[in-house]
Write a structure and sequence with these properties.
By secondary structure, the protein is of the alpha/beta class. The protein folds into two domains: 4-240, no CATH class; 247-369, CBS-domain (Roll). It has helices at residues 20-40, 46-77, 103-131, 136-155, 164-177, 180-209, 212-240, 264-275, 294-298, 310-313, 329-337, 359-369, and strands at residues 4-10, 13-18, 82-88, 91-96, 257-258, 279-284, 287-293, 315-316, 322-323, 344-349, 352-358. The strands form three sheets. The protein has a four-stranded mixed sheet. A hairpin with a 2-residue loop joins strand 3 (82-88) and strand 4 (91-96). The longest helix has 32 residues, at 46-77. The radius of gyration is 27 Å and the shape is elongated. The two termini are 44 Å apart.
């Protein structure tokens, strides 16, 4: 997710904050200080409302972080890698590498989040029950944390993909039907319907109660659910075309090469100007030395190109990202999408370059795969 700042690392997982989180943090603090707390606990000084408001907002997002970490810990326990957890406008999101390998894995990685929030709600409610006769400000804060965690837990059990409840529902359908594709189609359709329902209810609230803030908030949540369900389905449909395919199925085997002792000037005049290639694999015999791109040579001043060797301008093999031909193509896509590798990856077999793989090569396979009905997760009607 772009627009994020890394604030730390916990259990080997990067914790990031999106710029939108600043607005929701301030909004929650303002709402607590000026609406919720004065209603449930009238008579405090203004400073007390603001102090508890900011504390409540901070602790709320700490609870969201715990919720997300429960997903991450369960995923790690099942052998999956978690890249980061990001707090943003609508809560938090865990970036877990790859998809679930079974319905059971999908169920538990998804269900543990709402379960954690409900356990936090129980903890704070028991704490509130024991301190409510004491400090009024602390009691109000703890009561709020109990209620908000209860809401987070129950809301995330709503079977609206991509919420946790939607993923749990998808796991149940997957287990019942034996088809991950069918489960995805049903879950995303229901998620879109829930999203539309939230938007409609938000409009109803604004028209009937004049509560614009709640109506707009419901609309934003509905839009997020609806758009996320649609994009998740589209991505799944596209990536399903890569299932069972390897890097060798998409890589370019007739890739251009150049020797490391060639000057940049010769490369430009005798090769690039005639072939219009942007990437050249640097080899001497069968030995891979590196990769030189149009961007690399553009950094060499024109007056220095005659006396600058390709070996000086290239990215050395020690710094290259390489893949084997039998690497799953989904893993190849992951290198481009999530790891920022680009523009191409050199495919190496037995220490010898055998191909080039670009994002466009993978997209071509995904696009062509859509022509085959077996890749469509929407099952045909049976009559």
């Amino acid at each position: 997710m772009s627009g994020t700042v890394r604030i730390g690392k916990l259990f080997g997982v990067d914790v990031r904050v999106h710029f939108s989180w600043v607005f929701i943090f301030a909004f929650m603090a303002f709402s607590l200080s000026n609406s919720y707390l004065p209603t449930v606990s009238p008579g405090w000084a203004i400073g007390q409302y603001w102090a508890i408001g900011f504390a409540g907002s901070a602790l709320l997002f700490l609870c969201v972080l715990v919720h997300e970490f429960s997903h991450s810990i369960e995923a790690i326990r099942r052998g999956r890698k978690v890249r980061s957890i990001t707090l943003f406008l609508l809560g938090g999101v865990s970036e877990i590498e790859g998809e679930s390998r079974s319905a059971g894995e999908e169920f538990w990685v998804s269900f543990v989040g709402p379960l954690t929030s409900l356990l936090l709600a129980l903890f704070f409610w028991l704490l509130y029950s024991n301190i409510r006769s004491g400090n009024e400000q602390l009691s109000a804060l703890v009561q709020y944390l109990a209620l908000v965690n209860l809401f987070i837990g129950l809301f995330n059990l709503v079977p609206a993909f991509p919420l946790d409840g939607g993923r749990v529902f998808r796991a149940v359908v997957w287990r019942a039907t034996g088809s991950e594709m069918r489960a995805m189609a049903i879950a995303s359709r229901i998620g879109s319907a829930f999203g539309a329902g939230f938007i409609g209810f938000g409009i109803f609230v604004m028209l009937v109660t004049d509560d614009v803030i709640t109506g707009v908030w419901l609309g934003i949540v509905g839009w997020f659910i609806r758009s996320s369900a649609s994009s998740a389905r589209d991505q799944y449909v596209a990536e399903s075309g890569l299932s069972g395919r390897q890097v060798r199925d998409a890589m370019r085997e007739d890739f251009p090469t150049v020797e490391p002792g060639t000057s940049v000037q010769v490369l430009l005049e005798q090769r690039v100007a005639k072939e219009f290639e942007r990437e050249y694999v640097v080899v001497l015999g069968d030995t891979l030395y590196g990769l030189v791109t149009a961007t690399d040579v553009s950094r060499v001043p024109p007056e220095a190109r005659v006396r600058t060797w390709v070996s000086e301008a290239m990215t050395r093999v020690s710094d290259l990202v390489t893949l084997a031909p039998d690497t799953p193509l989904k893993e190849g896509l992951d290198h481009f999408v999530r790891r920022g590798v680009g523009p191409v990856v050199v495919v190496v077999e037995n220490a010898r370059p055998v191909g080039l793989l670009s994002r466009q090569d993978i997209l071509r396979v995904m696009e062509v795969s859509q022509l085959f009905p077996e890749n469509d997760p929407e099952p045909p009607d049976s009559h």
